[in-house]
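Field reference: "sequence" (input) and "structure" (output). Example, Threonylcarbamoyl-AMP synthase:
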Amino acid sequence: MAFSLENGQVSVENKAGLVRPATEAHAEEAIQALKTGKVIAVPTDTLYGFACDACSLEAVNRIYEIKGRKHTSPLAICVGDVSDINRFAVTDHLPHGLLDSLLPGPVTVVLSRGESSNLEKSLNPGLESIGVRVPDSNFVRVITRGLESALALTSANLTGLPSSVCVKDFENLWEHCACVYDGGVLPSGRAGSTVVDLTRLGKFKILRPGSAKEETTAILEKHSLVEEPAAG
């Protein structure tokens, strides 16, 4: 491999060697990097993201360091299938079929973690909720299934700077990743996922419009959820 094992960093001349196609042929390599606590960059159905094992405190801390992000800003998680969500968050208050209607897709659902969550307590400490994604991205779902855990997932950019829709957008950060998986130019227009709070019975609140607000709202209302007004 083209990266050194020390902190997962590489020299400038080896940066190009970090980039791989985001195909199933490279999935096993990505899974092994995740299992050994490394951070990788992946394409989702909205933006490029940094990903690591959500149950590795060291890897999660590394994502915060790469992004220059405060630990008070929570990370979302990604799972391979909708049926995995209840391992990490409370879903039994939701209408039957709702999550399957929303996901996979460009939506982050915010749910209560609950006492039985498999998530490490060190992930987003002090927060009783967690944002969960099932991206409509075959590569991400394959590696998440292979990890047999959840991915911690956040946009591949320095905090406060524009999000990335191609690997060149965050080339200055490649050196901090074990591998960068290239899925081409993504079509989201840097909008990111739509974030919706589903922690309350029968209610929903759009926390970030993102790239699928109208479709998401229509699905939620079809399942008889009532929108709560935004704070402020």
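The longest helix spans residues 57-67.
The two ends are 50 Å apart (CA to CA).
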